[in-house]
Amino acid sequence: MIDELRAYLSWAEDAGMQIVASGLRPQAPATAMKLPLLEEVRAQIGECTRCKLHKGRHNIVFGVGDPRARLMFVGEAPGEDEDLQGFPFVGKAGGLLTKMIEAMGLKRDDVYICNTVKCRPPNNRNPEPDELEACEPFLKGQLAAVKPEVIVTLGKFAAQALLRDDSPVSRLRGHWREYERIPLMPTFHPAYLLRSPGEKGKVWDDLKQVMKKLNLPLPK
User: Fold this and answer.
1) DSSP secondary structure code for residue 196 in this structure
2) Rounded CA separation 109/4 (Å)
3) Where residue 5 falls among pLDDT bands split at 50, 70, 90?
4) Exposed, middle or buried, 174 (CB in 10 Å: 0-12/13-18/19+)?
5) pLDDT (tens digit, 9 = 90+) per residue, 54-77?
6) Where are the alpha helices (DSSP H) in 57-128?
7) Phi then psi for 140, rounded to 5 degrees?
């Protein structure tokens, strides 16, 4: 309960919410506190204009999947297909992520998928620090709402956003870390694997560690 309360308060504070205004008074017992629902986090985003990315977007790309998923994938930023459709990982990289999930014996509907930033950067450039900062409260809100047992970050910016570690993802991947006491496995982004298919074996090794952590059966 303490970890859940800490996660809620962190999200609420970063999102600029007033706890007393929401009816949750400081003297209320801890059992009166409730974590945000994904719908509440999405409502808090609204038609966001908190950073410059809103100027070129077609759709806010929030997240998809099981709202109580045991496993959560966090990517970096929406691409063109995601921006047009409003869903994360629906392009070529998304197709590869789907194959990765299915190789684990799961379906996309079994996991939750989102990105660090919810709007597409121009020309698919990397998200910039102010953009990551503007979206961070909502990523925290998604994590607090889903409460996954394991997080997998896809790519450098997703890992750095949650771990506050500037190390290259090639150094981070394959090693367990923690976010708010949740085991976190950094690995390469599917878009990188499309450019460097020889690295797929490393990602599969990372995912097998995740499967073991979740007590999922490993392929023989």
Assistant:
1) -
2) 24
3) very low
4) middle
5) 999 999 999 999 999 999 999 999
6) 80-85, 92-103
7) -60, -40
